[in-house]
Design brief:
The chain is α+β, with helices and mostly antiparallel strands. A 3-stranded antiparallel β-sheet has the order 1-3-2, with helices on one face. It has a single domain, classed as Transferase(Phosphotransferase) domain 1 (Transferase(Phosphotransferase), domain 1, Orthogonal Bundle), CATH 1.10.510. 29% of the residues lie in helices and 23% in strands. The longest helix is centred in the middle third of the chain and has 20 residues.
Length: 146
Amino acid sequence: MSEQRDRQVGPSNETIRGGAADNSNRRLLREARAAARLDHPNICAIYEVGEADGRAFIVMQLVEGETLEARLRQGPIGAVGAVSLGAEIADALAEAHAQGIVHRDIKPSNIMIARKGHVKVMDFGVATLTPDWTSAADTRTETALI
């Protein structure tokens, strides 16, 4: 529970691999901050992005439910359910694209089905900022792990 905002959150700690940790941390934090701009009912909210003790962290919305991957293991979803889930996923990705963010890692394990049956696209893991997205600090388009 976040004491500042009185809401349930889920932390994500990322360890940067390789020798270019400082550059990778900067990219990770920039990409996470860009994803935090997304405000859509089918995208997992990112509440805070930062760095502590050389490790990047992301505080995101806690989504209770199951991944699409886990749901698919239980058997077929059915045409109506599949169309509904697909439409919500497409709507979430369209919003991200409109904000200049491309997910690049859509797969069943990165899609949560919340308790009420609605989709939350998670983990903009290999997100890329499109050339249209600009930041005062850095206008280059790069790939980073989030």
